[in-house]
Amino acid sequence: MKHNILPDDDGGGRRIIGLSLGAFAIFFLLLSRLWYLQVVNADDLMNQSENNRLRFVPVAAPRGAILDRNGKVLVTNTPSFSVAVIPQDVKDKEQLIDNLARYLNLDRNEIETKWNKGQGRAKYYPLVVASGITRDQMEFLEENRLSLSGVNIEMKPIRAYANGTLASHLLGYLGEVNEEELNSEKYLEYNAGDYIGKSGIERAWESYLHGTDGGRQIEVDARGRFLRTVAETGSSVGNTVMLTVDLNLQKAAEQAMGDMAGAVVAMDVNTGEILAFSSNPDYDPALFTGRMPPDIWKQYLEDERHPLENKALKGMYPPGSTFKIITAIAGLEEGLINENTTVECNGSYKFGNATFRCWEHKGHGTVNLRRSLRESCDVFYYKLAERLGVNRIAAYAKRFGLGAPMGVGLENEKGGIIPTEQWKLKRFGKKWFAGETLPVGIGQGYVLTTPVQLASMIATVANEGKIYRPQLVKRVVDADGKVLKEFSPQLAGTTGLKPETYRLVKEGLFAVVNEPRGTGGMARLWEVKVAGKTGSSQVVRDSKAGMAYKYRDHALFVAFAPYEKPEIAVAVVVEHGEHGGSAAAPVTAKVLRAYFEGKGVIKKPVPKIQPQQQGEAVAEPDGQAAPQAPPATPATENRSGNSDR
Amino acid sequence: MFDRRLFTNFDWTLLGVVLLITAFGVVNIYSASSSYRDIGTPYYLKQLYWIFAGLILCLTVCSLDYHMLEDFAYWLYGGVLVLLVLVLVAGKTSMGATRWIHLGFFNMQPSEPMKIVIIMTFARFFSRYPIFKGLTLKDLVYPLLILGAPALLIMKQPDLGTAVLVSLIGGTMLLFVGVRWSALASLFAAALPIVYGAWTFGLHDYQKKRIYNFLNPDLDPLGSGYHIIQSKIAVGSGATFGKGFMQGTQSQLRFLPEQHTDFAFSVFAEEWGFAGCLLMLTLYLFLILWGLSIAKRCNDRFGSLLAVGVSAMLFWHIVINMGMVIGLLPVVGVPLPFFSYGGTSMVTSMVGVGILLNISMRRFMF
Fold it and tell me: In this complex, do A45 and B249 lie within 8 Å of one another by their Cβ atoms?
């Protein structure tokens, strides 16, 4: 038909070949590119595809438990269930909120608010709408899964505090690891969002308690939705930390403190093990794990009793008259006084232009060492301090480990202050005045001690010279029961004093509690002989009764028992408790009673002990309550019969 | 009408290659869509229906003598051009582009048949056109108008991919007919300001963005550069022998966009690796060369031009799609013939094959 009207007939064929070569060339280009991607760059792109689809989801290890010295649980874990919704899987939002509100007994608005908060997030991101639901509620939701599409129940272990707020400062609380911590070497293995111990034992033993986090390698699709678990490494539970603290004693200490602010430290005289370590008031550590209710947080911050502060560890108080023990020891050792040395107290002591007053304004009359301790005569110690000089007092204080942290093993332990001439020069750039030595003799002035130090000091007096490092942890055990760390008593030093010195001081301390006119009568136990020393330390210069709370004197008491063969030492500080004898001594008595009840030395039930306000009627600065026999106990003469007059 | 010779001369090789590619396509769609939620008929099954429908159309086309097309070519061209105008005036808008028109009983996308129609129109035009030593600039005026009108209309929808394809098909046919070097040089000189103008005024922002992202996909790795990056990762991670059927993580986890349609080949590349890609490229190259050889063996100019046009249509689809998948070309919505899921593409490609078969089996008739 139309056969060949092409002008250049052969041109068509040539061009076909041309087009074919062109096609071939371009296909070769495609092939080269494929070669480049699939052969040359394959490894790199393979890696990228792996990273694309695999996500690592860390599974937090359950933290190790914290037990008391007898294996009683202080902190463990409990599964916490929370309800999350995945918006993309929800069919009917309104109905689901209705159902959840009904099933969980929650306010509808609350759920909706939480839901709407997550609005900006990706649709596959689970939004927690209710946390801490009960097991029954969880089971109910599980059973009704079908009608609750888009609802996820998540489980994670959270801290369970077996005794609520008990020992909260000692145990510490958890919180999310912060930026600064993440950058430090200690938390190298941690990821943002991990919970770590923020204070107390939880923080100090974080590396043991934390456990090894496991993880799941999951495969996700392009929208990040979970598809399946590719690999899983189990998490291993943290180690168990067994404390030296005795749960019952701790309870007794905190109960005895009641609403008062302060600290109680009880220590084993012969090992340094801390048996009770309380700081009042407590806070609730459980609140730190979840979302802290703002009103409670505000309450914590505004409470003038400072619930968040660990007073036993970080509270620095002038030791007041409890420090007379040190001054007395210095005097005896230096040969400035002996058993029979007497001082005339007429209520005050004039030094230069200043007058230093004894708390007993009428004066104590003729006072020897024993009486000076028993009745806490200030003039005796002013005069002694004057003769000793501040540096000699400081030297003996330091022999007892005062003025430096004891090494309890918790973060930020305070060391207190034991002033010397050099110290003042360094600190203030000023010379020491002799007049400043006098208040140091009665534990005022620059002297500051922590409750732990006071407990250690009295324990060293009790055991006559051995300073044990105060210990809080007995042993650390792993999940299989293998002991990882075991602590034995650690002798930090000895005082190296004459036995006679101890005998005389201890006799005086016995008199404080057990003799008429002794300031510490309220610490007396009838079954066990107690020795101790009261103290009240000024917060402001001229303290008087009826002042505002924050200006009132601190009340202190240090004690050990039994007198003959000491086992336990106790230091009590009641902030703004005014009088050691009336505020701190009864607390000591209760702690000691609990200790000896636990040992079976004192039989329960306990006779009722008078509330602490009782001593106020006869309140002197040191709360001299001795004239009154402890009311709940028969007013018979004490067994020692070792009375002065 | 049915000559026995038609049957004996039937081009089984061509149909065989096409069916082989469609078979790979179906298998690949099965894998690519396996991660989708089950809604209605699975894609691979629907693709089978489309292949069946396409085959019927293909055989229908090749049962009629292609010379009939010569008489209808201009009418068809005019008709489709009117439809393209209608689309702009009264078309259905979906996803920001107006490409569909409602024709009473079915919706159609007139830009798609334009690919075939432009081939027939050019074949018709040049089959009667006296040419000496190639086309001069003056000779090119009418062809460029014929080509330019639909291309601009399609671009306006906007459907950059199809507009480019139509232009490339027409351009290839012009090259086949022969263009003088002087004319080519002038065109090229004239093209520069036109391209600049089109870039500045003609392209939509999303189209420009695609081109920017093609040039530097890392600018916006989660946004518009995402497709290119993910596709390259999919292809490259397939390595030499691939991850295996249904084992492609990029596709099974749906990191790939449009993975059963425009990006079907990246799924294939991931799962079958370089070896699989080599096989596919070979099949496609064979198809193109076979189509060109039909053009060469054909005894009349119209048939020869038709065969070149259809080969060019298939070729440019393949090159643009693969170029996009492997990151050589910007992302434009061009499917891979016989391989990507989709009825429109299947029908167009099958009609094209029908034309090739038609020419192939009638080559001895004259």
Answer: no
Listed by start position, the domains of chain A span 50-73+168-241, 249-282+310-618
Domain boundaries, chain B: 4-69+133-361
Q: What is the layout of strands, in order, in the sheet containing B92-94?
A: B92-94, B97-102, B107-108
Please give the residue of chain A at the shortest CA–CA distance from B257: A222
Burial class (CB in 10 A: 0-12, 13-18, 19+), A336: middle
Q: Indicate the residue of B128, B235, B302 with minimum beta-carbon distance to A37.
A: B235
pLDDT digits 0-9 by tens, B15-73: 999 999 999 999 999 988 887 766 678 889 999 999 999 999 999 998 888 888 888 89
Q: Which chain B residue is nearest to residue A21, measuring alpha carbons?
A: B289
Which residues of A fall within a CB distance of 8 Å from B133? 8
Give the residue among B81, B103, B105 at the shortest CA–CA distance from B90. Answer: B103
A5, A45, A225: which to substitute to probe chain B, counting the most B Cβ within 10 Å? Answer: A45
Same fold: A50-73+168-241 with A249-282+310-618: no
- Give how far A7 is from chain B: nearest CA, Å: 6
A544 exposed, middle or buried (CB, 10 Å; 0-12, 13-18, 19+)?
exposed
Residue B296 with chain A: CB contacts under 8 Å: 12-13, 16
Cis peptide before A562 (omega within 30 of 0): yes
Query: Which one of A6, A30, A41 has the shortest CB-CB distance to B323?
Result: A30
Q: Considering only alpha carbons, which residue of chain B is nearest residue A226?
A: B253
Give the architecture-level CATH label for domain A249-282+310-618.
Answer: 3-Layer(aba) Sandwich (3.40)
φ, ψ dihedrals at A385, nearest 5°? -65, -40
Q: Which of A576, A577, A593, A595 is nearest to A630 (CA)?
A: A593
DSSP track, B232-277? HHHHHHTTTT-S-TT--HHHHTT-STTTTTTTHHHHHHHHHHHHHH
Per-block mean pLDDT, blocks of 10 residues, chain A (645 long): 44 83 94 92 81 66 91 89 76 85 84 74 64 80 78 80 91 84 77 81 92 73 65 81 95 93 95 94 84 82 88 93 95 93 92 88 92 94 94 94 91 92 92 92 93 96 94 92 90 92 95 92 92 90 73 93 94 91 93 93 66 43 42 38 30
Closest B-chain CA to A15: B176
Predicted complex ipTM: 0.91
Structure tokens at A17: 């070949």
For domain A50-73+168-241, give the CATH number: 3.90.1310.10
